[in-house]
């Protein structure tokens, strides 16, 4: 992974019960990483715990920055996987340890914000972001081969299992979108052609 997340490090996953989050928790635990998650309900946090998450934070009732500081003796986490973007940027920077890395994959909290960059200099932080859509076919093929090499063995061994909440035929894509917008799901919503 671009963030160089390594065994023994700590990793905060926002939206731990999401399609992405449920997979990220399992692969990180498989690699020997301490996992922190945020989610919006006790049911979702219990699911994250069941998948191996070590520290589960309800972002609706708790201040995640304060809880991370408390759980890490004031140090912060090494890497954050963030699907929120703008509205979390300051709090994410405040939650990172020295040499910490923030990896942004979504803007559910907007793409525009104002931020105090001081923590970046003080703690040598890195902000990265990436998407899949605008990549060349060659680059996508490279990603698939890296996944085959580094992730697939854990899936074959049953150490990492996709969490599927519900499947829909392609003709019912609108229903699937409606379910995703309601955001009561835990894991992936699949469309089957
Ligand atoms: N860059 C890329 O390559 C890439 C690839 C795939 C997906 N994505 C992005 O990654 C994100 C997740 O995708 P997904 O398929 O896993 O979607 P998803 O299953 O719908 O997950 C979205 C999650 O965000 C949670 N959430 C919303 N506000 C939150 C907050 N303030 N703090 C913590 N969690 C919050 C929701 O649950 P609760 O609020 O109820 O906890 C829900 O679990 C999306 O933004 C998607 O666009 C990016």
TrEMBL record:
This is Enoyl reductase (ER) domain-containing protein. GO terms for molecular function: NADPH binding; oxidoreductase activity, acting on NAD(P)H. SUPFAM superfamilies: NAD(P)-binding Rossmann-fold domains. InterPro entries: ADH-like_C, ER, NAD(P)-bd_dom_sf. SMART domains: PKS_ER. Gene3D superfamilies: Medium-chain alcohol dehydrogenases, catalytic domain. It comes from Oryza brachyantha (malo sina). Pfam families: ADH_zinc_N. Keywords: NADP, Oxidoreductase. Residues 1-191 form the Enoyl reductase (ER) domain.
């Amino acid at each position: 992974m671009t963030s160089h997340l390594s065994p023994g490090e700590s990793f905060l996953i926002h939206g731990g019960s999401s399609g992405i989050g449920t997979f990220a928790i399992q692969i990180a635990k498989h690699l020997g990483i301490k996992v922190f998650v945020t989610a919006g309900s006790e049911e979702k946090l219990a699911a994250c715990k069941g998948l191996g998450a070590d520290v589960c934070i309800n972002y609706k009732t708790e201040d995640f920055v304060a809880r991370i500081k408390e759980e890490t003796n004031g140090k912060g986490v090494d890497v954050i996987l963030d699907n929120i973007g703008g509205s979390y940027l300051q709090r994410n920077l405040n939650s990172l340890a020295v040499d910490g890395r923030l990896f942004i994959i979504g803007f559910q909290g907007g793409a525009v914000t104002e931020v105090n960059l001081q923590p970046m200099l003080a703690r040598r932080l890195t902000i990265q972001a990436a998407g899949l859509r605008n990549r060349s076919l060659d680059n996508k093929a490279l990603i698939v081969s890296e996944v085959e090499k580094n992730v697939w063995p854990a899936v074959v061994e049953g150490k990492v299992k996709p969490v599927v909440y519900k499947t829909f035929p392609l003709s019912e894509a609108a229903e699937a979108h409606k379910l995703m917008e309601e955001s009561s799901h835990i894991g992936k919503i699949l469309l089957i052609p």
